[in-house]
From TrEMBL:
Belongs to the GST superfamily. PANTHER family: GLUTATHIONE S-TRANSFERASE GSTA, GLUTATHIONE S-TRANSFERASE-RELATED. SUPFAM superfamilies: GST C-terminal domain-like, Thioredoxin-like. Pfam families: GST_C, GST_N. Coiled coil: none annotated. Residues 1-79 form the GST N-terminal domain. Residues 84-208 form the GST C-terminal domain. This is Glutathione S-transferase family protein.
């Protein structure tokens, strides 16, 4: 397998799944900031020009959550996906919640803070996005009270997806009112095969 990635992007989710599953893989760093995502060669495997991309033989899958689900499905003996229909549905529910209700406000903040050209940035949308994230984080905060994992009684790929997103929110100071989520995130990143935290991944990128 090859994982096209760049720290500290959502590649972390895919790498985390690979590490937890003990799957050997080749890492291919895609330097998006140097235009590597827009080369004809890379666009041929990921037309969006983003990371991560997983190449497994002749099969290519993009989008970090889809990659994590694919890997967990391919190695069911590792138990990173519930087999019970209702638990699996709840897992899907919360992963979709994370990437729509939590991740999207974070993207809006990033785009209006440094990704968009300066003349296109909207400071007011940053504040609105922060409000949106905080409100939805409280929904997850309530769900996680008394729980060790996102769903069920064992870890799943949903925990890796969620922990990364929470780490992103924490990096910009949006989890200060969510002690349950902060404790949950720490538990996940304390796992022996967890991926790097965003700040550490950023440091490794800057040092390269």
């Amino acid at each position: 397998m090859k994982l096209y990635e760049l720290a500290p992007t959502r590649s972390i989710r895919a790498r985390w799944a690979l590490q937890e599953l003990d799957i050997p893989f080749e890492s291919v760093v895609v330097k998006l900031n140097e235009g590597a995502g827009q080369t004809p060669e890379y666009l041929a495997i990921n037309p969006a020009g983003k990371v991560p991309t997983l190449v497994d033989g002749d099969f290519v899958v993009t989008e970090s959550v889809a990659i994590a689900v694919y890997l967990a499905e391919k190695y069911p003996q590792k138990g990173l996906l519930p087999t019970d229909l209702k638990l699996r549905t709840q897992l899907n529910r919360w992963m979709l919640f994370v990437v729509t209700e939590l991740e999207q406000p974070l993207w809006r903040i990033a785009k209006n803070s440094f990704l968009y050209p300066e003349e296109k940035r909207q400071a007011t949308d940053i504040e609105l996005a922060k409000e949106d994230f905080r409100a939805m984080a409280q929904v997850l905060e309530k769900h996680m009270r008394g729980r060790e994992y996102l769903v069920g009684d064992r870890v799943s790929i949903g925990d890796f997806v969620t922990a990364y997103t929470l780490d992103w929110g924490n990096e910009i100071g949006l989890l200060d009112q969510c002690p349950t989520l902060l404790a949950y995130m720490k538990r996940m990143y304390d796992r022996p095969k967890a991926a790097m935290r965003i700040k550490d991944a950023m440091a490794s990128l800057n040092a390269a």
